[in-house]
Amino acid sequence: MGESIIDVEGLSFGYDERTILHDITFRIDEPGFYCIIGPNGVGKSTLIKCITGHIKPGSGKVSIYGRDVRDYRLDELAKVVGYVPVMNADFNVLTVLDTVLIGRYSHQKWRTTPEDLAIAHGALESMEIGDLAMRYFSELSAGQRQKVSLARGLVQEPRILILDEPTSNLDVRHQMYVSAFLKTLCEKTGMTVLMISHDLNLAAKFSDEVLVMAPPGKLYGIGPPGQIVTERMIEEVYEVPCEIIDDHGSPHVILQLRGPPHRTS
Amino acid sequence: MASIECMTSKAMADIEASVDRWISRRESVDADQKMAEYSRYIGRKVLFILACIVAAFFAAGYDLTIGPYDISIWETYEVIWNHIMGLPLDYRDDLVIWTMRLPRIVTGVIAGFGLAIAGVVMQTILRNPLADPYTTGVSSGASFGASLAIGFGLSVAGAGGLGIVVNAFFFSLIPMAVIVFVSKMRGASPATMVMAGIAVMYIFNAMTTMIKLWVDADTLANIFAWSVGTLDVKGWDHIATMFAFTLASGIVLMVMSRRLNVLSTGDESARSIGINANRLRIFSLFVVSMLTAGIVSFTGLIGFVGLVCPHIARMIVGSDVKYLLPASGFFGSALLIVADIVGRSVFEGSALQVGVVTAFIGGPMFLWLIIRQKKESW
Q1: In this structure, is residue B90 part of a structural domain?
Q2: B190-233, pLDDT tens digit by residue?
Q3: Contacts (Cβ under 8 Å, ≥6 apart) of B260
Q4: Domain count, chain B
């Protein structure tokens, strides 16, 4: 078997007496677009923080390109893995352009070069927020901040981009746009995107594979959306009845909170 | 691309074009035009820094003319130049300018610069607009050390002026040690550091108050005079020590400025960019504590500069620490010298201590800027 992009082996983690993650094992061998789904508090963010090396697992190990993530120097890791957490604006007192340029830290010297600027502006334009470059980050709406954070992750030019709910504050058009952009980027460049999402349909439509977390912090399964996003999985993991219909070859979830949906045609 | 067949072909074509533009970003963006725009953006910041340097230079020159011995601003520059270059000069001019007046002005320039950059770094690393040398207890520690030496002659370096200075320096480092210790115990979040600093500040303030209650009236007056701050530092060797602290810290902080910017995006984000936020915060706090201690142990407590100068400079040059440090520093120098001019000329005969005047000038200026500020910078 070849070298994995991400290899998580027997990963467990807890705070004090409370165990958050129980013996998680999976591998990502091919570049592509991967989504992590699961109910609130199931340990999705904790899992990606273990993968990015932000927190040290209680037991088990995470390898990135065959090397233990804790063995990477931080500046080395920054060139391989870009992590975009939910960015808080309370203390970000920089302009949007300066915030995005920070993502170039591991590539930059003392001076900002024309190349850095071209990359930063390119990322802002890719996220359709080129006109916000000179605005303060703290002045932006939650959705605009998410796009700036994504642009910050892009300019880092990592081989793996890990995102914590990057579309949670976006309207439907921008959710579709960002997801399709990242998916297309993976296909064209061989990049790997691993993203937490609460939108089952978005995950099902765009992901190459979906990783499902279930209470109490266990891996339910990982696989192509058509195989893993099933009525049974949603009932077992979310405890919500649903109907799955086919939407251009990918599953589309219709939740049945008040009985079966009414067909209009 | 079977999985995104649900999107319209036009939407998909737009996204593909957008991805292609991103892939060829180095060519598709007009880098020269963006660089020209960026250079203008940076140019405005540099212009403010230069304006502050010029303002500090001329304010210092004017401050040198104030006093019973009559001398023009240009003559003061000439005296200084001739003294430095070893050229022949008038003995009285040299005595008045070089020996009597210049130490005070140079102290103002150094203290203003040092305290202002300390404020920039404290506000940045603690992510708190109210952070300054007081918040971290450094000033309170210095005040207690000085009070102990003045009140009871208890000093780590013997009695006298040097004893006060060394004691103030020694005790101003204790709050930093406590903050680092507490942070290590609980994980160094900025909030933990601020709370630990405030706790230490109250403890030292209470102990200083107890000393004030136990000493006689003359000693109390001496402690009070130290606590309001002065630019009357005794001798060039003390000034050289202050300068060494400020220069060394300034260089270290400028080198670290890009890393300090990264903290603005949050600790988790900083780590993913390649920065250990906790380690950077503790090291920065150490440097800034040394810097503040190196200044306030000579000048006493000069408040306000460390709190307000970073905010005023931030409103003009923005929050990029690389530019905010020099902008705030030179603005602090200019402000302290102007405060000294006002204190010595407007209140002639009963010269107000510079710390008091700084608050009188800076307070209304700060309020005016807050009211007219359009953009939210914090």
Answers
A1: yes
A2: 778 788 888 898 999 899 999 988 888 888 888 887 777 778 87
A3: B121, B124, B125, B253, B280, B284, B321
A4: 1
